[in-house]
Amino acid sequence: MTVAPVDYLLTRRSSKFVQAPGPDESQLAQILQAAMSAPDHGRLQPWRFALIRGQGIARLADLAISGIKAAGLPLAPEKEANTRRWLDRVPLLIAIACKLDHANTKIPEQERMLAVGAAVMNMLNAAHMLGYGAFWSTGLGSYVDEVTEALGFDALDYRFMGYLAIGTPVQAPGPAQRPDFHQFVTEWTGA
Ligand SMILES: Cc1cc2nc3c(=O)[nH]c(=O)nc-3n(C[C@H](O)[C@H](O)[C@H](O)COP(=O)(O)O)c2cc1C
Predict the structure, then answer these.
(1) Which of 16, 80, 93, 134 could crosslink 127 through cysteines, CB 3.0-4.6 Å?
(2) Is residue 20 in some structural domain?
(3) Ligand 1: does its nearest atom lie under 6 Å from the Cβ of 136?
(4) Hey, what's the torsion of the CAs at 81, 169, 127, 93, to 10 degrees?
(5) What is the pLDDT at residue 78?
(6) How many domains does the chain divide into?
(7) How far is 173 from 175, CA to CA, in rounded Å?
(8) What is the pLDDT of residue 168?
(9) Which CATH number fits the domain that encloses residue 145?
(10) How far apart are CA 118 and CA 38, in angstroms?
(11) Best mutation site among 11, 136, 140, 166 for ligand 1, i.e. most ligand atoms within 8 A of its Cβ?
(12) From what superkingdom does this record's organism come (predicted)?
């Protein structure tokens, strides 16, 4: 049975727990290229991505955990162990940042962030269409400057927007429970 692309969109679900295999180079290129189709006011191209794979993921785990502790944020030993166990299996993380481009004052900051959000949504859908699971997380020290600066995104020039984990779902997700859209929609006629 073929599923129309629009129906396929409705089957996307996030999968936090993913393992190898992750996307190969050509699939990864498709996922990243999908981000380039996001709407982008002023063609600012504010999206920035850092690929984290292999040993880099273990290093990121150390960086995030030490950064969270150094910032005095709570991190229970159980949560730390769970984070390491989670990342141990993840084959690919993509760190996401929004370039602020202070010189351009015409387009508000929130529109750059929205463009990056739209880019990430395209990546989530591309990963799904390629048969992978993906999960957007703002854990792992996303709001700790020491962590995001070590990833190359200083707080002055960027807004760090988290990570995408992409790979093969450890467990096939069941169908998502989604709300009926009617409760979120009104019709405005101006009359
Ligand atoms: C910007 C952003 C950050 C998120 N950060 C987290 C996070 O740190 N931890 C978490 O459990 N879910 C986080 N989520 C939610 C998950 O990515 C996911 O959307 C949620 O588990 C629901 O799954 P669904 O996408 O299948 O509806 C975040 C979502 C967004 C949009």
Answers:
(1) 134
(2) yes
(3) yes
(4) 20
(5) 96
(6) 1
(7) 7
(8) 98
(9) 3.40.109.10
(10) 5
(11) 136
(12) Bacteria
For residue 10, the model assigns a pLDDT of: 93
Distance CA 181, CA 14 (A): 19
Q: Give the residue, by CA position, lying nearest to ligand 1 atom 5.
A: 137
- pLDDT at residue number 1: 56
CA angle, 16 then 115 then 142, to 5° = 45
CB 123 within 8 A of CB 31: yes
Output the pLDDT for position 9. 92
What is the mean pLDDT, run by run of 10 residues, along the chain of 191 residues?
A: 81 97 98 98 97 98 97 95 98 98 89 98 98 98 97 97 98 92 98 94
Q: Is residue 109 part of a domain?
A: yes
Q: Which two tokens stand for residue 58?
A: 């273990």
